[in-house]
Amino acid sequence: MRITVKQQVLLAPATILVLLVLLLVFMQCTYWNLSAKRQEAKAIGTTFIALAEADMAARRLHLLLRSMQHTGMAPPEDMALVSDLYERLLDAIGRLKPFGPLKESGQIPQLINLAEDLNPADSPQPEETAEFFARFRTELSAIFNITQIHRNRLRLAHEQDITQLVERTALVSMSVLVLAILLGLFISGYFSRRILNRIQSLSRNAVQIADGKLEIPPAPDHIRDELDTLAISINRMTKRLIRVVGTEKLLEGAEEERRRIAMDLHDQSLSDLSTILRGLQNLSVETTDKVLQGKTEKLEEDLERAIANLRDIMNNLHPQTLDILGLGAAIEAHLEQYCYADNLPEYHLYIDPQVSDLNLDRLKQLALYRIAIESIQNIIKHAAASRYEINLEVREKMLIFSAEDNGIGMSGLEKQDSGRGLNNIRERAKAISAEVTWKPSRFSSGTRFELTLRT
Ligand SMILES: Nc1ncnc2c1ncn2[C@@H]1O[C@H](COP(=O)(O)OP(=O)(O)O)[C@@H](O)[C@H]1O
Ligand SMILES: [Mg+2]
Fold it and tell me: Model's pTM, two decimal places?
């Protein structure tokens, strides 16, 4: 199952939240139960009052009717009172609220029927009146008794309910809270330990890579979360790094070999040639033969040229100026030595002073130097330019080298399907993680070669 790191972190609080919501629902249900009982108690209270009012009205009505039947007179104010009392009686009965046992017993409809018999408008006989009232009041008192008993029972039950409710609510709340805390701790502990272990293993792998121990760390088979993505990235990064370091080592080896050859040429061939030169010079001084003297002087000149060529080859194999002066000065020295002549295009050089503050390692310096030299050679060889600009500057933590000429320019084909020189430039740039581009120059024609390296 795919659970993201964010979901794993949020799982514990979410579980606690769900449990708390359930607790809230439980409390709400308990309250509803309680309020239903309260509703019933209220109905009993209303019924109680209505019964008392009906009883009082019936009693007064009975007395009044009896006295009227006794005297045989019915003054109009007494008649009005009779009908008013009967109204009140009916009203009180109408307010009876059936509850618990009264709901299905049919006693309330029976009481209503009996109340209808009491209607003074029907002018009942005195014996009938007494009987109707007696029946009505017997029924009334039966209902009253039931109400009383039910009320007492309800009050008792209510008190018990409240005690139980408090106990139950306290118990459930405590249990849910303890469960929520334990579950929250367990889930967060489980997931955080899992995440932490994986982060620690990833960080161990990263430290190993940073320390130069290039062992490919294991990668998960499928991606479940962001950490798996990170593990796969570290795995791929290590593989790429191993490839890059391999190339770097090869280049390092090649540079070392060039240095060794340069030293051998210097210590062996150059000193041998110098010895021969000195011998020739001595010979031309000592001899009196003019013809021989002319020949030895010619040989001396040839030998001096051969020695100068050999020095160039040595310097090309291992540029000592780079070790002594640094990158900027080495490029400048090369330009002054080989590119300053009437038959060559005019150059302008700008070296940013910040370049010398950069702590570039020797391999990077060498790669940059060789790339710079090749791009200058290409301008001289192929561009047919009258001038060119060489810049080495630092901009926003980027080292930028550019060689821009006003020559014939390069076709797209030349850039892509290029010769050994351009390929070497690309290979060297890749080895030091630099980017190279060839674009039209800012002059009216020509090429701008640019290299950017993050410092
Ligand atoms: N600055 C330039 N202006 C015009 N053409 C160039 C320039 N630099 C390189 N080229 C073209 O790119 C081709 C490949 O260059 P490169 O790989 O260095 O070969 P080469 O070994 O002949 O110098 C050259 O033959 C030339 O046509
Ligand atoms: Mg070239």
Answer: 0.50
Three-state DSSP at 220 gives coil
> In Å, what is the CA distance from 246 to each residue of 218, 251, 434?
21, 9, 17
**H or E, element range at 448:** strand 447-454
Please write the tens of the pLDDT for every residue from 236-280.
988 888 887 877 787 778 888 888 888 888 788 888 998 899 898
Cα 100 to Cα 122: distance, rounded to the nearest angstrom: 34
Atom 9 (ligand 1) nearest CA: 378
Half-sphere exposure of 189 (CA within 13 A, CB side): 6
For residues 115 and 22, state if they share a domain.
yes
Number of structural domains (the chain) is: 3
Q: How far is the CA of 378 from the centre of ligand 1 (A)?
A: 5
**In sequence order, what are the residues at sequence separation of 6 or more whose Cβ sits closer than 8 angstroms to the Cβ of residue 330?**
319, 321, 322, 369
Q: For 270-301, write each residue's pLDDT tens digit.
A: 889 988 998 988 888 888 888 888 888 899 99
| Alpha carbon of 246 to ligand 1 centroid (Å) | 28
Domain boundary among 263, 296, 318: 318
Question: Is residue 210 situated within a structural domain?
Answer: no
- Given a contact cutoff of 8 angstroms between Cβ atoms, the answer to whether 40 and 99 are in contact is yes
